[in-house]
Amino acid sequence: MHSEKTRILLVNDDKRVCDVLGLILESRGYEVDVAHTGDEAIEKSKTNTYNLAVLDTGLPDIESKQLLRAMHDSSPKMIRIISTEIIRLQDALDAFNDCADGCFANPVEPGPLISLIEEKLEEQKDAKMARGKKQNQDGSSV
Fold first, then answer.
1. What is the Cα–Cα distance from 16 to 34, expressed in whole angstroms?
2. Which of 56, 72, 127, 140 is the most buried (most CB within 10 A)?
3. What would the pLDDT profile of 6-61 be if each residue is shown by its tens digit?
4. Distance in angstroms (rounded) separating the CA atoms of residues 76 and 89
5. Strands, DSSP E only, in 3-91?
6. Is the dihedral of CA 20, 21, 26, 31 positive or negative?
7. How many other β-carbons are positioned within 10 Å of the β-carbon of residue 15?
8. Which CATH number is associated with domain 7-138?
9. How far apart are CA 19 and CA 108, in angstroms?
């Protein structure tokens, strides 16, 4: 279990994917919200604080680059992991250049995705702790 709730946003138009991943993540102590459209995801990221979002790049209502940019603009510190049908080197590079922090191939395999989520959240926690230590050493408040 996590001492303070880590919030994750799952964005996928396939409700079954969201249900399965949501159950797995909740069983690991995460708080999970779901959005089934890009517009819903953007609105939720504007009104809620999430540590991480898992974004399907095949949403029918928005292009993946537009979604990534909008999510970055509304929540720049949130980790963004994208899922895509085809992973080619150039696609992955383009995604990272468009504000993605990680990617994985569809169909979703929960094990590797959960590992990637937890790895990215650990990196986020380590970076936050390092910033706090640096602020304390500089004499500024945390």
1. 11
2. 56
3. 999 999 999 999 999 999 999 999 999 999 999 999 999 999 999 999 999 889 99
4. 24
5. 7-11, 31-35, 52-56, 79-84
6. negative
7. 11
8. 3.40.50.2300
9. 12
Cα dist. 73→46, 80, 117 in Å? 9, 12, 21
The H or E element spanning position 104 is strand 102-105
Torsion of CA 71, 111, 109, 90, to 10 degrees: 60
Tokens coding 16: 């079954």
Three-state SS at 117: helix
pLDDT above 90 (res 107): no
List of residues 6+ apart from 90 with CB closer than 8 A: none
Domain regions of the chain by residue span: 7-138
Cα–Cα distance, 97 to 72 (Å, whole number): 12
Report the C-alpha gap between 3 and 57 in whole angstroms.
Answer: 32
